[in-house]
Specification:
By secondary structure, the protein is α/β, with parallel strands linked by helices. The chain has two domains: about 190 residues, Spore Coat Polysaccharide Biosynthesis Protein SpsA, Chain A (Alpha-Beta Complex), CATH 3.90.550; about 70 residues, no CATH class. The protein is about 40% helix and about 20% strand. Strands 1, 2, 3, 4, 5, 6, 7, 8 and 9 form a nine-stranded mixed sheet that branches. Strand 1, helix 1 and strand 2 form a beta-alpha-beta unit. The chain is globular and about 65 Å long. The C terminus is likely disordered.
Length: about 325
């Protein structure tokens, strides 16, 4: 009778959607880091149209490649990928990252030695080596009042914006944090399954925020490990997605509805409305041609109404 195959320690889950070159670079870095042995790498290709799946199969046959017939989004895609994982620890890794030797093992080792922690996250750096100030606190009412709005830098309100963006946090030192990004996040697979993975209603954004909040609510901490450094081509995995602004707005409303109730969703709609009015005014100042201005404002109105599914007369007709 054949001995059962030993389960890997790490299951590294990567989503791929039209980022062929970056995904191949990510997989090459994992291979150079020695993560082809004792670990498993799973790539869920989200119906890429740039030949990503074929290139992965040809150049990295050691990868467990899962082909999705459609782009299911970040939350559902990671849930599908993690469902196939066998390792004790999950590492959620963006396709636009590059991993150094021993980096991911360090994230898991900390969890082994510290059972009161639910997840670990590395320091993210830009391709030029500069540090990405990626960690944030959980968004609340104050965050909603100032986020992406011009008065967020006013003296009396600046504290709210600074607090959310962790501007008092030193990304060069290890520390307990509230919300790291899911560009690289390590946690026990048992915890992931206990939490049910990402909330599928948060299709593209805020799913990592929601997951981290649920980890904290279970009484577990999250550790930022500055000694583990991952190169991150920030935004490369989503910038080509034309619906990203719509999904960002919708997921933001859904997150606040989940954690702040109907009043939270209503408040975010009001803040988005204010932001849209500001953009409406800016377009009027920036674009001089009346026809171009009308077209730009019509597109703005369309996007806003699709986000909030709001009353049609939010904006003036002209």
């Amino acid at each position: 009778m054949q001995e059962a195959e030993k389960a890997p320690t790490l299951s590294i889950c990567i989503l791929s959607w039209n980022t062929k070159d970056l995904t191949l670079r990510c997989l090459s870095s994992l291979q150079k880091a020695g993560l082809t042995e004792g670990s498993e790498v799973l790539v869920l290709d989200q119906a890429s149209e740039d030949g990503s799946a074929e290139a992965i199969a040809e150049l990295h046959p050691w990868v467990r490649l899962i082909r999705s017939p459609e782009n299911t989004g970040f939350a559902i895609g990671n849930n599908l990928c993690a469902r196939e994982a066998r390792g004790e620890f999950l590492v959620l890794l963006n396709s636009d990252t590059e991993v150094p030797a021993q980096g991911l093992q360090g994230l898991a080792s900390f969890l082994v030695q510290n059972p009161d922690y639910g997840a670990t996250s590395p320091k993210l750096v830009n391709p030029d080596g500069s540090v990405q100030t990626s960690c944030k606190r959980f968004p609340g009412w104050g965050t909603a009042l100032v986020y992406d709005l011009p008065w967020g830098r006013w003296p009396l309100l600046r504290y709210l914006d600074d607090r959310y963006h962790y501007r008092d946090f030193d990304h060069q030192k290890d520390a307990d944090i509230e919300q790291p990004p899911a560009a690289c996040l390590c946690l026990r697979r048992s915890l992931w399954e206990d939490l049910g993975g990402f909330d599928p209603d948060l299709w593209l954004f805020y799913n990592d925020v929601d997951l981290c909040l649920r980890i904290h609510r279970k009484g577990l901490k999250i550790r930022f490990l500055a000694g583990v450094e991952i190169r991150h081509h920030e935004g490369a995995s989503t910038r080509n997605f034309v619906g990203r602004i719509r999904h960002w707005g919708r997921d933001r409303i859904r997150y606040y509805r989940k954690w702040k109730g109907p009043l939270g969703a209503w408040f975010i709609r009001r803040m988005l409305s204010l932001r849209a009015w500001i953009e409406w005014w800016r377009l009027g100042k920036k674009i001089k041609d009346p026809r171009e201005k009308k077209t730009a404002r019509r597109e703005l109105k369309k996007v806003f109404c699709e986000i909030v599914q709001h009353e049609k007369d939010t904006f003036p007709k002209k």
